[in-house]
Amino acid sequence: MTVTVSQMFISVHDPDVALGFYRDALGLEVRNDVAAGGFRWVTVGAPGQDLDIVLSQPHGGRSQTEGDALLTLVTQGSMQAAIFRAEDLDATFEKVRASGAEVLQEPASQPWGARDCAFRDPSGNLVRIAQA
After folding, report:
1. What number is the average pLDDT over the span 71-96?
2. How far is residue 104's CA from residue 83's CA, in Å, rounded to a whole number?
């Protein structure tokens, strides 16, 4: 039996602002854009990869209390969104930095063997990018 990941979710406070990071800076493609019940979610993914990343608003599908709690965690930077891989980490880092994203760590070799960098997306989520 083989199990694979098909979707992951990242909470964002504003889908349009999030697209400036995930689509424009990281180069992910938009696969779906849905508005329902006063909320919106946008599905993005890496070209050629069968994994959907759903950028969703914290209050969509949750109670006001749950949405408020999640929004607080997101905006204070307590959530790790994802770790991406890039064939050219230095070029990717410069492209994302040029977009105005908050840099947390420039490309560096880590004690666990990876060479990576880190940013916060516009909602405050921690995003790491590792050398492929």
Report:
1. 89
2. 14
